[in-house]
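The authors assume throughout that readers already know how a fold can be written as discrete tokens. A single example would do more here than another paragraph of explanation. An entry of this sort, consisting of the sequence and the corresponding backbone structure tokens, reads as follows:
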Amino acid sequence: MNIGLSDITHSFRSHGEGAGVSIKHGHAQQLLVAAFGYKTLASYQAAKASAEEPGSFDLIHHLILDRDCLSQRVSELGIECDIEQLHHLLSRAFADRLAHVVLHRSYADLTDHIRKEIEHVVENNGRVTGQIDELNHDGIEEIYSDPEVNFEHLQIGMSFTDSIPGHVSLHRDPERPYTGTKIDFQLSLAGERLGRRCYSSFEYEVTHVLLRAPWEDHMSTPRSSQHRLWPEIDEEDDAPPVRTKAEVVAELLGWTVDEVEGIQDVEEMPLDGNSGDMIYGFLLDFTDYASSDEAARIMQEHGTLQFRVGPDFFDGVRYDGWPH
């Protein structure tokens, strides 16, 4: 069913009367298009005729209220009703006719809506939950993202795609060895600007997921994320290895290279989850490699002899016989 301006206007007036706000049909239409950013019904109809507004409300999923334009029109028409009440009446009108449309108070409100949608998508993404299952934790603390799409500057009638980084923070489980509490992700957001204040539905896709190494939990942009989540800044594929295993083990423990000489040969155990289809990281267990003094120092400084590291931990490490 093709829902038009008259249908929304009818529901708008009906809810207004129920709330003790009587609005003439013509005035109701003027208020409706003012909410979309148009000073007159004629200017809205002209925009619609020139394809600057969608031909049908059925295509719209997100509307951002133009509070300034609506306030001005309310004053000009002499209607005694504040903006918040009008927002409520308009929201109920759309809920009656087009339940899929969300009327946002502002662009900041739209961004908050997107952030909540991202939380839902990430929390139910198989790759993310697979990483979470690999960690010792006590539940999800936060799913953080910061969408920075400038919706007002998007071209009307054009589709857009934007990449949004974020991370999942987990509550640490004090009863089990520390394995890290953050998982970085990158997500794509796609949609279309349909008119001055209206947008299509949004599609979300998690494109990258990476377990943050335990020693990187405090970093806002960890090294592993820089090299794995954003491929455009990766080193060239044919770049020669430039680090030794002693160097990466020393970095892991916060020791000098000389201090890890006796434990640098620790073997790594691949972590491939339940499916075995993908390596999510490696487990380094120093139990059988550290002397009693070394083990005591590791326990004092880190609280565990077992370290879970990301899948890129050994990237760039010199192999036996390097460079030949």
User: Anything to note?
Assistant: The CA atoms of residues 133 and 305 lie 20 Å apart. The chain has a mean pLDDT of 85. DSSP finds ten helices and ten strands in the chain. Residues 107-123 form the longest helix (17 residues).
